[in-house]
Every structure is written in structure tokens, then in C-alpha cells.
Amino acid sequence: PDGEILCLVPVRDGRQMALVPGDLPQYRVYQAGRLGPAVGLGLLHRLVDGGAVRHLVQEQNLIRPDPQDLQQGRLEVVRLLGSHARIGIEAGQVLVKEYLSMQEYGLKTVLLEHELEEARRCKDAREIALVRKACEITDAIFQETISTIRIGMKETEVSALLQYLAIKNGASAMAFDTIVASGVRGCMPHGRPSEKTFEAHEFITIDFGITYQGYQSDMTRTVCIREPQPKLKKIYDIVLQAQCAGVDFIKAGVKGKDVDAYVRGIIQEQGYGQYFTHGLGHGMGMGDGELPMLN
After folding, report:
1. What pLDDT does residue 70 have?
2. Who's near 105: CB < 8 A, 6+ residues apart?
3. Which of 65, 85, 89, 277 has the fewest Cβ atoms surrounding its Cβ within 10 A?
4. What is the DSSP string of 107-150?
5. What burial letters (b/e) apply to 117-130, b meaning 16+ CB within 10 Å?
6. pTM score > 0.85 for this model?
7. pLDDT category, 42, cuts 50, 70, 90?
8. Under a CB-based contact definition with an 8 Å cutoff, are residues 161 and 148 in contact?
9. At what angle are helices 256-269 and 230-249 packed, to 10 degrees?
10. Residue 35: pLDDT over 50
């Protein structure tokens, strides 16, 4: 109906999603291919009456359509969305050329900041099940991976193995760039895999996630080949203690920053507060780092 907001949501990996308000506060999310804003309009059309808008879903992106197609497109937009409908756009994600294309079709646009993130922060039962499934697959991938890690193996080899196992086990893609950092490189929160080879008694940090039916996992684990050095083992145990305490501290009504402060205090008491240079954690769902943020 007129006045309702229909959202074309650009996604970082190039795909698009049309977010259509259903029975509020729930949202139905539909995914389209990589063809630019024209695909989003065609997708909305199919949601409305199952048809197809030929001139809006051609293989090329109609950034500069001819006048006849442009007028036809404008009329089709009014027919599908109504004369007063608005299109919500994530201001930080949409390309300038896509924004101009929407204006050429006469779309009334609303620039969104954090509204979609807020809408996604609470998951329904289906979404929770998909996140759980993604995590189960990730657990299996990790177990198979650590069984192959050996002295002399490169960080890049582990990264490649993780990606292979992810696709093999049903993932559509990696959720983000995999992190594999060993030895002194383990101090890098986002250390990308290098040609460094693994050595005995050093820690190996592995941080990866997969995308399964649109929903993501995110796992960080630290392992060691043979026994770790005593000082490193002590630090590992402190971090593990703080993590478990943080999990127990989380409950409905607690603020993310309070969880971060609580865990950070444990690390501080052990004398390692100055080395806690990263946020504590974040939510999970369709994006790599959704609300709530624990920092």
C-alpha cells in the first residue's frame, strides 16, 4: 500500500536483497542476483503478482536507458509501488550510480542509517535454526582442519583447506576473509594468512565463518602443536576464564558495553589489560558483525 517502505538492500559481496515488511515486526527477506538495482525492481514485481518486468530485468544494468524504456519504467514503478511509495536505501552501502538510477526511474528514496540493523538484531525461530546449522557445519570443518595441522604447514594452506571444506559441507561462501595467524603474528586481531610456517609450541589463531542459506557463523579458536610455552598457557587460561565468565554474565536487559567492561576487568586484574585492544564480541546473523555489539 501507498506509504509503506520497500527496501532494496545492497550487500557487500555484490548481491542484492529486497526487504519487504510483512507481518510486523517480522520481516521477509528475499535474495536476488548480481544485476544492480534493476533486479531489485524486477524482484519486487515478482513478489507482487508473479510476473516479470522485461525492460527492468535485462542482463545489463539500465543506468542510462533510452527515453521510451525510462518512461515505461517510471509507469511500472508507480503501478507496482503506488504513487506515494518510498524506497529505503542503506546510505553506507549503495553505489552512487545505483542511487542515480533509482532517481531516473522516479523512485522516492529514503536514506537509512541503522534501521535495518535494528530490524535484524532479534531473530525468529527459522533464523536461529539457520545460524545454529551454520555453526554446526563450522564446528565440523574446524575439527577436520585441526586434524591435518602439522609443523611446517603454511598459514595459507590452512586458509585454503577451510574454504574447501566449507563448500564441501554445504556453505555458499566464507562469511568473511579467513584469519590464520601463528606465533608472533597471533597478536594481530585481523591477521590474514601469510606464507609463515607453523612451529612447535607456538599458538595458532584461526578465525573463520561460513554463509549457509544467507546466514553466517563466526568462530575463533587458538590451538598449539605440542605443549605451549608455560607463559602462553597461563595467558590462554586467563582469556578462557574471562570468556566463560562473560558468557555467564550475558542475559536479557544487560548492555553490551557492560559485558565488555566486566570481561575487560577480569583481564585487567590479571595484569594484561593493556593488551586487550579489540572489542569483546558482536551479534550474528546475515552480516559479519551484527547488533548487539559488545564493546
Report:
1. 63
2. 41, 70, 73, 74, 77
3. 277
4. -EEEEESSHHHHHHSS--HHHHHHHHHHHHHHHHHHHHHHTT--
5. bebbeebeeebeeb
6. no
7. very low
8. yes
9. 150
10. no
DSSP string, the chain: -TT-EEEEEE-TTS-EEEEEE-STT-EEEEEE-SS-HHHHHHHHHHHHHS---GGGS-SS--SS--HHHHHHHHHHHHHHH-TT-EEEEETTTS-HHHHHHHHHTT-EEEEESSHHHHHHSS--HHHHHHHHHHHHHHHHHHHHHHTT--TT-BHHHHHHHHHHHHHHTT-SEESS--EEEEGGGGG-TT----SPBP-TT-EEEEEE-EEETTEE--EEEEEESSSPPHHHHHHHHHHHHHHHHHHHH--TT--HHHHHHHHHHHHHHTT-GGG--S--EEE-SSSSSEEEEE-
Query: Residue 231 corresponds to which cell in the numbers above?
Result: 607463559
Which cell numbers in the block locate residue 47?
A: 513478489
What is the pLDDT, as a whole number, of residue 57?
35
Residue 195 is predicted with a pLDDT of 97
C-alpha cell at 163: 574454504
Q: Specify the pLDDT at position 77.
A: 67
User: Angle CA(220)–CA(132)–CA(248) in degrees, nearest 5?
Assistant: 65
Residue with cell 563466526: 218
User: Based on C-alpha coordinates, what's the Rg of the chain?
Assistant: 23
CB atoms within 10 A of CB 177: 12
Q: Note the pLDDT tens digit of each residue in 164-202.
A: 999 999 999 999 999 999 999 998 888 899 999 999 999
